[in-house]
Amino acid sequence: MTSEKPPPGVDLTRPSIARVYDYYLGGKDNFAVDRRAAEMALKVTPDGPEVGRACRAFLRRAVRYLAAEAGIRQFLDLGSGLPTQGNVHEIAHGVDPAARVVYVDNDPMALAHGRALLADAQTTTVAEGDLRQPEKILEHPEVRRMIDFDQPVGLLLLAVLHHLSDDEDPGGIARRLTAALPSGSYLAISHFHNPGDAHPEVSRRALAVEKVFNETLGTGRWRTHQEISAYFGDLEMLPPGLVPLADWHPVGDESRQTDIYHTIVGGVAHKP
Ligand SMILES: C[S@@+](CC[C@H](N)C(=O)[O-])C[C@H]1O[C@@H](n2cnc3c(N)ncnc32)[C@H](O)[C@@H]1O
């Protein structure tokens, strides 16, 4: 869509995570600069698109679980990305059409396309927000309008905490957000994973992709199991714990162990 006029605020000189991810997912909301960055990472590890698909499949399973099994009726999806197939509100509405969803992102293209998609939705909204300023997100008028903080919330931090650097304190941010939620709420996280010595070849590749991501996109951290587990703080992990995405409540052939098995993990926890 390089010949199309981008939405206001979209910078065509630098790649964006949201648009690179869209490219990996086979979407059309990306530009030459994004495709170049995406292709550079693919040279180191050709499985970027598979990681994207695994992330979306985990999102679908986690949201379905939270809506259907845990009875969650309101979702706060931070770092929600560009709309694609199987968005959170579509999954949640499959269980209860009255379920409410707030999408929050800091990417102008994700916000513009999200707003266009949701122009008529009574139950779903899009808000601009930066995860590095969690209090501002919690105070955002759209978040306050849509989310009742006296009722359990499904907080989704999917494929986004790995775009915060260690200095930006992703663990502290997760804690500040979950502290604002009532008992009975849930936190779902998916995150790039470096398996370390347990899988040295995967670990070596994770470091190589991390380097490319940081040189092109300026973000991307493949963290250890211990580092990611800590983001759940004192919430209670649901079985099967923080595991390769393929192993979290798999459906059909989604539990296949492919090359990306060890490079991205996810889990869901409950606030008692
Ligand atoms: C890889 S996409 C993940 C999309 C979706 N959550 C999923 O799991 O499919 C990461 C998204 O996080 C957004 N993002 C990155 N850093 C952010 C920040 N500091 N605040 C808000 N959104 C952020 C990006 O713009 C992008 O849309």
Rg calculated over all Cα atoms: 17 Å
- Give the proportion of residues in helices: 25-40%
Contiguous helical run count: 10
End-to-end C-alpha gap: 47 Å
Number of strands: 8
- Write out the distinct hetero groups bound to the structure: S-adenosylmethionine
Q: From the helix content, strand content and strand pairing, which structural class follows? A: alpha/beta
Shape: globular
Biggest beta sheet summary: 8 strands, mixed
Describe this structure in words.
The model has no long low-confidence stretch (mean pLDDT 93). The chain has helices spanning 17-24, 32-44, 48-69, 88-95, 108-117, 134-139, 141-146, 170-179, 200-216, 225-230; strands at residues 74-78, 100-105, 124-128, 154-158, 186-192, 236-237, 243-244, 264-270. Helix 4 (88-95) links the parallel strand 1 and strand 2. With 272 residues, it is α/β, with parallel strands linked by helices. Helix 1 (17-24) crosses helix 2 (32-44). Strands 1, 2, 3, 4, 5, 6, 7 and 8 form an eight-stranded mixed β-sheet that branches. It is built from ten helices and eight strands.
